[in-house]
Protein backbone atom coordinates (compact mmCIF):
# COMPACT_ATOMS: atom_id res chain seq x y z
CA UNK A 1 0.00 0.00 0.00
CA UNK A 2 2.83 2.41 0.78
CA UNK A 3 5.00 1.65 -2.24
CA UNK A 4 4.46 3.93 -5.24
CA UNK A 5 5.58 1.03 -7.45
CA UNK A 6 2.82 -1.35 -6.39
CA UNK A 7 0.18 1.21 -5.43
CA UNK A 8 -1.10 2.48 -8.77
CA UNK A 9 -4.42 3.72 -7.38
CA UNK A 10 -5.89 6.95 -8.69
CA UNK A 11 -8.32 7.55 -5.81
CA UNK A 12 -7.77 9.08 -2.37
CA UNK A 13 -5.42 6.20 -1.46
CA UNK A 14 -2.93 6.65 -4.31
CA UNK A 15 -0.39 9.21 -5.47
CA UNK A 16 1.49 11.05 -2.74
CA UNK A 17 2.95 9.37 0.34
CA UNK A 18 0.29 11.09 2.43
CA UNK A 19 -2.46 9.59 0.29
CA UNK A 20 -0.84 6.14 0.24
CA UNK A 21 -0.63 6.17 4.05
CA UNK A 22 -4.23 7.38 4.40
CA UNK A 23 -5.73 3.85 4.55
CA UNK A 24 -3.40 2.84 7.38
CA UNK A 25 -4.10 6.06 9.29
CA UNK A 26 -7.87 5.63 8.76
CA UNK A 27 -7.71 2.06 10.11
CA UNK A 28 -5.72 3.13 13.19
CA UNK A 29 -8.15 5.99 13.90
CA UNK A 30 -11.12 3.64 13.60
CA UNK A 31 -9.54 1.11 15.96
CA UNK A 32 -8.76 3.84 18.48
CA UNK A 33 -12.35 5.14 18.32
CA UNK A 34 -13.82 1.66 18.70
CA UNK A 35 -11.59 0.73 21.63
CA UNK A 36 -11.43 4.09 23.42
CA UNK A 37 -12.33 4.01 27.10
CA UNK A 38 -12.93 7.76 27.18
TrEMBL record:
Q: Which GO terms describe its molecular function?
A: FMN binding; oxidoreductase activity
Statement: the UniProt record of this protein carries the keyword Flavoprotein: yes
* Name listed for the protein in its UniProt record: NADH:flavin oxidoreductase/NADH oxidase N-terminal domain-containing protein
Which InterPro entries does the UniProt entry name for this protein?
Aldolase_TIM, NADH_flavin_oxidoreductase, OxRdtase_FMN_N
Q: Can you tell which superkingdom this protein's organism belongs to? A: Bacteria
- PANTHER family reported for this sequence: BINDING OXIDOREDUCTASE, PUTATIVE (AFU_ORTHOLOGUE AFUA_2G08260)-RELATED
Q: Please state every residue range assigned to the domain named NADH:flavin oxidoreductase/NADH oxidase N-terminal.
A: 2-35
Q: Does the keyword Transit peptide apply?
A: no
- Which key words tag this protein in UniProt? Flavoprotein, Oxidoreductase
